[in-house]
Amino acid sequence: MVDQIIDDETIEEMEQLLNVASDFTRLKILHALLSGEKNVGELIEIVGASQSLVSHQLQVLRNNRLVSVRKDKTRVYYRLDDEHINMLFEVVYAHVMEKRMKKEDY
Amino acid sequence: MVDQIIDDETIEEMEQLLNVASDFTRLKILHALLSGEKNVGELIEIVGASQSLVSHQLQVLRNNRLVSVRKDKTRVYYRLDDEHINMLFEVVYAHVMEKRMKKEDY
DNA sequence: GACAAATATGAATATACGTTCATATAATAT
DNA sequence: ATATTATATGAACGTATATTCATATTTGTC
User: Fold this and answer.
1) N or C: where does chain B have the smaller number of CB atoms within 10 Å of the terminal CB?
2) pTM here?
3) Which residues in chain B land under pLDDT 50?
4) Could you tell me if residue A87 is inside a domain?
């Protein structure tokens, strides 16, 4: 399926998505959202980063449409806007685990 | 499966993998290798980047064990060292395609 | 050994970006 | 209206890294 020719524009878009995903703070946010929507305060708590940092990174996730927003009074709730994020997590997680195995029997 | 608690060390390793994958040149190299092993000269041709750049990026892929190496006389052949790369490609590709659909009916 | 071809490596540069700090905005409550 | 809570935003800084240029290394051939 993917072992066809992929044009450069598509590769660039793939690069873009992977770039957004390849940050510790954003990964923690995405992971937190796997179990359902959370507001910013909750995310700050779970991720363990500063308010400003979490807010900035949420902006990045928003701009790239990985998350969508819902406002309720003063709270802002974020949730995953993409079913593929789950699969992305699965694949990357599986990779990391396998590499860990291989390392053990060096 | 992944909607469990994932410790920070694992997240860091996921970040690391995604970082390696999130580069245009490296993505093109990985994509070229999906169809089978290639030597450096062939990769330079396919990717359309300079000899130095391809060689540098191959080093990054090597260091992170995404590719493995085989030498034959003066040629060096690279191939994917991981079955998950295929799946990673599939997932990211699917994501990009879906986002493209959604954009069309803005 | 000298030379050529294939690949790797090191230094230098420029740019992108993650994080912090300070401040702004928006909504609610008193 | 003021104060408070929740969230967003802008500037500044430091660091990581992609790319280029020049040079080194390795292997094979003459």
Assistant:
1) C
2) 0.92
3) none
4) no
